[in-house]
Amino acid sequence: MSNTNTQFSIAVHILTGLAKYEKLNSNELAVSVNANPIFIKRILAKLSSFGLVSTSSGRNGGSTLARKAENISLYDVYMAVEAPNTFMVHGYPKNFSCEISTNIQGAMHDVLEEVQSDLKTKLSSISIDDMGKKVAKKK
After folding, report:
1. Are 11 and 123 in contact (CB under 8 A)?
2. What is the domain partition of the chain in residue ranges?
3. 114-126 pLDDT, tens per residue?
4. Which of 24, 48, 65, 92 is surrounded by the fewest CB atoms within 10 Å?
5. pLDDT one-digit tens code per residue, 59-101
6. In CATH, what class is 7-137?
């Protein structure tokens, strides 16, 4: 099947929930995401390390946004969860008798850099607040 990393979309889900409900614990977030609370805690730890959420433990503990939802871009989230590149360039040995084999990896790295730059630009233009509005429109 797919070897896709879902941490980015789950982190956006978490932050959008925190923007709407202000404070949630990992169990509440796990119910919303329909995922294991331990997995949610791992993502919260990454978001906390990057300064996107504040967490407190104990009976009344939970997580809150560390800054306003409009000041958290999807690129911030992407960086916080160390999301993988949009694609990988293969590392098979080059066949030096073939021009394509000799040059394809470098050409693909150039394309990857362009795609990642475009992705950064697009994700930087969308905030968690924007995501909350998109979710509300889907009702």
Report:
1. no
2. 7-137
3. 999 999 999 999 9
4. 92
5. 888 999 999 999 999 999 999 998 888 888 898 999 999 999 9
6. mainly alpha
